[in-house]
Design a protein that fits this description.
The structure holds two protein chains of two kinds. Chain A is an alpha+beta fold. Chain A has two domains: 78 residues; 238 residues, Bira Bifunctional Protein, Domain 2 (BirA Bifunctional Protein, domain 2), CATH 3.30.930.10. Chain A has a seven-stranded mixed β-sheet. In chain A, strands 2-4-3 form a three-stranded antiparallel β-sheet. In chain A, a hairpin with a 2-residue loop joins β7 and β8. In chain A, α1 packs antiparallel against α2, α1 packs parallel to α3 and α2 runs antiparallel to α3. The mean pLDDT of chain A is 90. Chain B folds into five domains: 70 residues, Phenylalanyl-tRNA Synthetase, Chain B, domain 1 (2-Layer Sandwich); 200 residues, Phenylalanyl-trna Synthetase, Chain B, domain 3 (Phenylalanyl-tRNA Synthetase, Chain B, domain 3), CATH 3.50.40.10; 69 residues, Phenylalanyl-tRNA Synthetase, Chain B, domain 1; 184 residues, BirA Bifunctional Protein, domain 2; 89 residues, 2-Layer Sandwich (Alpha-Beta Plaits), CATH 3.30.70.380. Helix content of chain B is 31%, strand content 28%. Chain B contains 21 helices and 32 strands. In chain B, the strands form eight sheets. Chain B has a seven-stranded mixed β-sheet with strand order 20-23-24-28-27-26-25. In chain B, strands 4, 6, 7, 14, 15 and 16 form a six-stranded mixed β-sheet that branches. Chain B has a five-stranded mixed β-sheet with strand order 5-8-11-12-13. In chain B, β12 and β13 form a beta hairpin. The N and C termini of chain B lie far apart (90 Å). Classes of the chains: A alpha+beta, B alpha+beta. Chains A and B meet through α4, β1, α6, β3 and β5 of A and α2, α11, α13, α14 and β20 of B.
């Protein structure tokens, strides 16, 4: 063993350290050099003498010092841990989105479910009978025409009965009768769904839009009950202490009929542009189910009564998300949809 | 309708609330007030009178009656008893009513001096949006605004012959209206005619011939009641809608004719210096019967859910013009003739409820039992789909339920349902599929997004033959960021997660929206539930899609039937599995599924899992060949498999594959 051999070992050591991948590997190298290389150098010292022994001894001691220092610094590094640049961006995951009208519908459904309402669904293409006749729309009453109904082309239409004449439902109310034909009261249902009006589209009108219909029928159901249910609904929907008020209105299928206003959630009744400075927003049509409607579904109107309501979901979503054009809902523009 | 605040005040001696306060009261107890605005010294109160009350409330008197009921103030209506002159109307003219008229009341006034009407009449007309013309025309309009009964005045000296007839127009009969429009009529349109020609379109617009002008001395005043359907149709046919036709369309109570006539005659005598002719010509064949309704106070309280005192109920009904008789808590009420909307006791409940005030009804929780439904909720399945596809990066879209002519080219016309008179040709047919909508979404988003992934759940419509229509719910998705196999992988994951049954695919060879050779039928439990495939070139061109993409279209109702409601636990394997790899060389045109089926058949139940981990095509193996590399997992539920058993199985598989001509296993 000569000094140059020790120097060679020293170089090997440094070379291996540099190539090592991590702290763990470097520590292993240190350990190996101490246990194997250093001990054999020191063991060989006893065969040397004089100047040579001194020379190799100094080199060996320096090597030991170097390895010890490396060992210490590796240990220290290990304690501190290595770091990566955590500020680099992560690998992007593109999640999809659910349509805002779906989200709102779900929210309404959840609230009504908690209050014991069952969720039902009806056909979008309806017979004239369910859409109008069964709901006490008198034949030839101008109200029928005012609904801007989308009729389906049928051969010899004028010869068909109103149960055969097809149209796109103008409201979700036909489901009141359809449901009661199958399920006798007491009952509570909500019917969300797409409805249609044959009118030109603009920022606040669409040819198709969404409603949620509600119906509660039993032997003892009153306007006072309606107020309690609907107040609770709106307080949960708008997550706050909104107030409601009923104003007289007219619908053929309810008597009495009301418009339901909620105190404007934006200005909290103070008056702003959304509520046209009245502090109230008209949000829902409602009323006590007309006896003729119950009779249409073969429900005994002398025994049962109930309330029904219908609310436009698009309108609520527009207010909720501050959307200025209802057509965005049906435009399929991802720049819009991705925001939800 | 626009109401004059000053006009309404004229029915009350007491001061009314301020216009804004009055509007608030009307809003809460009557109908919606659209606007209150100042008009000179007067105020316009614009009230949205709904059809149920159009009969009696398209009039100031009607609304004043409501105000009286709401505020408790007393209503005063001026009594009209016009003084009559000597000449008798029946010696002058006769009436002949032939069609569509339930009342025709004609009176006459002589010695009229045409001039401007008094300031208060002009002002109130202006507030209501009408232009003052002269005293006769103004009175006609003013009394209509007051009572709701449309009136018409003819210059008596311009009437030819001695008879006024109400009849349907002759085919192509012509008339020039007061505003000098030339009209060609048809046999559905009702006219007023003298013995020479028609002198007015009944209930809609007067004719120019007997116009009241500055030289008019004598008039006939018409207060009639025409059939609402006939007027509605006539008005639509000639494209003219007037204050009069609007009222007739909704229906005017017949009794208004004499109230309005007497009121107008009194005013004409007063402000036009006229002498009212003796007698009235009155065609009124069928008088309405008085109607009464009986009810119990309890019924009212039960429906409203409020303890309204008996006296309060009585007072409300009287203030609205009902005559009431009460025996303790049993009511018998006579419905005023002008309230055609009141038919049954629920209508009475509404009257009591709204005047009492819905704000005074206290909210009370229902005591009705809750009935829980046990039915499978379609809605839950829909939501599970939405959540899953959202997780896969797809955004939910809502498209129109309609398609246009271009879109319709992909479908056979006889199966499409067509819309009658759509507002736009974009909405000509009901959509038979969700795909055209999604393709349009793709085209729209291409310029802003590199990878577009969207889906829709919605109803589609079709007809098999005349009279047999269908409405079905579908799920469709589109992706420009996945190739066929990536999309297929997603569909598989979706179907496996939510639905029962084995999934398989078979080539679909029709070219349409899907590209031929690049699309497949999706089968669940052996039944077709949908299609997956690339967008065809034709569809790309038609829908102006540049990049192309992969489409999936699934029958949601079939899926619903196969929804995994309950998951049954399968025990976790106790014994280890052994793995073997093998690759097999087959001709290029061989479908993968044939190879897979061969391996599975030979491997039997012990072959738990088979995955393709490599597909290789290259010159080294021959141009007309391809190589599949499989990894096979062998496992037995009951015991640890020996290497020998597995080796034997593997040999069996290799032999089965090698036995197929053209196939060759390349062992590792």
């Amino acid at each position: 063993m000569e000094k140059k051999d020790v120097d060679k070992i020293r170089q090997n050591f440094l070379g291996e350290l540099e190539k090592a991948e991590d702290v763990k590997a470097r520590k292993k190298i240190c350990k190996r050099y101490i246990e194997e290389e250093l001990s054999s150098i020191f063991a060989s010292l006893k065969h040397l003498s004089g100047e040579k022994k001194k020379e190799v001894g100094i080199a060996a001691n320096e090597l030991r010092k170097l390895i010890d220092e490396q060992k210490k610094s590796q240990k220290k590094k290990e304690e501190e841990g290595e770091r990566i640049d955590v500020t680099l961006p992560g690998t992007r995951v593109e999640l999809g989105t659910i349509h805002p009208l779906t989200e709102l519908r779900k929210k309404c459904e959840r609230i009504f479910s908690r209050m014991g309402f069952v969720i039902a669904e009806g056909p979008e293409m309806e017979s004239e009978w369910y859409n109008f006749d069964a709901l006490n729309f008198k034949e030839d009453h101008p109200v029928r025409e005012m609904q801007d109904t989308l009729f389906i082309k049928q051969e010899k239409r004028e010869k068909l009965s109103s149960r055969e004449k097809l149209l796109m439902r103008t409201h979700t109310s036909p489901m009141q009768v359809r449901y009661m034909e199958k399920t006798k009261p007491p009952l509570r249902i909500v019917v969300p769904g797409r409805v249609f009006r044959n009118e030109a589209t603009d920022s606040s009108h669409e040819i198709n839009f969404y409603q949620i219909e509600g119906l509660m029928v039993g032997e003892d159901v009153s306007v006072a009950n309606f107020k309690a249910v609907i107040e609770s609904f709106f307080r949960q929907l708008f997550e706050g202490s909104v107030n409601i008020r009923l104003r007289p209105s007219y619908f053929p299928f309810t008597e009495p009929s009301f418009e339901v206003d909620v105190s404007c959630s934006i200005c909290e009744g103070g008056g702003c542009s959304v509520c046209s400075r009245t502090g109230w927003t008209e949000i829902m049509g409602a009323g006590m189910v007309h006896p003729n409607v119950l009779e249409s579904a073969n429900v005994d109107s002398s025994k049962f009564k109930g309330f029904a309501f219908g609310m436009g979901l698009d309108r609520v979503a527009v207010i909720d998300h501050k959307i200025d054009d209802i057509r965005l809902f049906y435009g399929g523009d991802l720049r819009f949809l991705k925001q939800f | 309708m626009k109401f004059s605040y000053d006009f309404l005040q004229s029915f009350f001696k007491e001061k009314l609330p301020t216009p804004d306060d009055l509007a608030d009261l009307l809003m809460m107890h009557f109908f919606e007030v659209e606007e209150v605005s100042k008009e000179g010294k007067d105020f316009v109160i614009d009230i949205d009178i709904l059809s149920s009350r159009a009969g009696d409330c398209l009039s100031h008197l009607g609304v004043a009656r409501e105000i009286a009921a709401i505020t408790g103030k007393k209503l005063h209506y001026p009594a009209s008893k016009p003084k009559e002159g000597k000449s008798r109307i029946e010696e002058d003219i006769g009436i002949d009513i032939r069609n569509a008229c339930s009342r025709y009341l004609l009176s006459g006034v002589e010695g009229i001096k045409i001039k401007k009407s008094p300031e208060y009449i002009q002002r109130r007309l202006k507030t209501c949006g009408l232009k003052p013309i002269n005293n006769v025309v103004d009175v006609v309009n003013y009394v209509m605004l007051e009572t709701g009964q449309p009136l018409h005045a003819f210059d008596a000296e311009k009437i030819e012959g001695n008879k006024i007839t109400v009849r349907f127009a002759k085919k192509r009969e012509k008339i020039v209206t007061l505003d000098e429009k030339r009209l060609e009529l048809n046999e559905n349109i009702l006219v007023i005619a003298d013995q020479q020609s028609s002198v007015g379109v009944a209930g809609i617009k007067g004719g120019i011939v007997p116009e009241v002008d500055k030289d008019t001395k004598k008039i006939y005043l018409e207060a009639a009641n025409f059939d609402s359907k006939v007027i509605r149709r006539g008005s639509r046919d000639i494209g003219i809608r007037t204050d009069a036709s609007l009222r007739f369309e909704y229906g005017v109570p017949c009794q208004f004719a004499e109230i309005a006539t007497e009121r107008a005659l009194s005013l004409l005598a007063e402000i036009a210096g006229g002498k009212v002719m003796k007698g009235r010509l009155d065609y009124y064949p069928k008088k309405e019967e008085e109607r009464s309704i009986s009810f119990e106070a309890k019924e009212v309280r039960d429906i409203l859910g409020a303890e309204i005192p008996l006296e309060r109920m009585e007072k409300i009904l009287r203030s609205l013009g009902f005559k009431t008789r009460r025996d303790n808590s049993s009511f018998l009420v006579e419905v005023p003739f002008f309230r055609k909307d009141i038919e049954r006791k629920e209508d009475i409940v509404e009257e009591i409820g709204r005047i009492y005030g819905y704000e005074n009804i206290e909210a009370t929780c229902p005591e009705e039992p809750v009935v829980v439904s046990h039915s499978k909720e379609k809605d839950d399945i829909e939501d599970a789909c939405r959540e899953l596809w959202r997780g896969l990066g797809f955004s939910e879209s809502y498209n129109y339920s309609f398609i246009n002519n271009d879109d319709a080219e992909f479908y056979s016309k006889q199966n499409l349902l067509e819309v009658e008179k759509p507002v736009s040709l974009e909405f000509k047919y009901l959509r038979p599929s969700l795909l055209p909508g999604l393709l349009k979404n793709l085209a729209k988003n291409e310029k802003n997004f590199q990878e577009i992934r969207m889906f829709e759940i919605g109803k589609v419509f079709s007809k098999k033959r005349e009279g047999e229509t269908s409405e079905k719910k579908r799920f469709s998705a589109i992706s420009s960021g996945d190739d066929f196999y990536q999309m297929k992988g997603k569909v598989n994951a979706f179907l496996e997660k939510l639905f029962e049954g084995s999934i398989s695919y078979s080539p679909e060879d029709k070219e349409g929206i899907f590209k031929k050779g690049y699309s497949a039928n999706i089968l669940l439990k052996g039944e077709k539930v949908g299609t997956i495939g690339e967008v065809s070139e034709k569809a790309k061109n038609k829908m102006r899609v540049k990049s192309g993409g992969v489409l999936v279209d699934l029958d949601f109702e079939k899926l619903t039937q196969l929804y995994k409601e309950r998951k049954i636990y399968e025990p976790i394997p106790k014994f280890p599995s052994l793995i073997r790899d093998l690759s097999v060389l087959v001709p290029k045109e061989t479908d993968y599924i044939q190879v897979e089926e061969k391996i599975r058949k030979s491997g039997g139940k012990t072959l738990k899992n088979l995955t393709l981990f490599d597909l290789y095509e290259g010159d080294e193996i021959g141009k007309d060949k391809k190589s599949f590399a499989f990894r096979m997992h062998f496992q037995d539920k009951g015991k640890t498999l020996s290497a020998e058993t597995v080796n034997n199985l593997q040999e069996k598989i290799i032999k089965a594959l090698d036995d197929v001509s053209g196939w060759k296993v390349r062992k590792k």
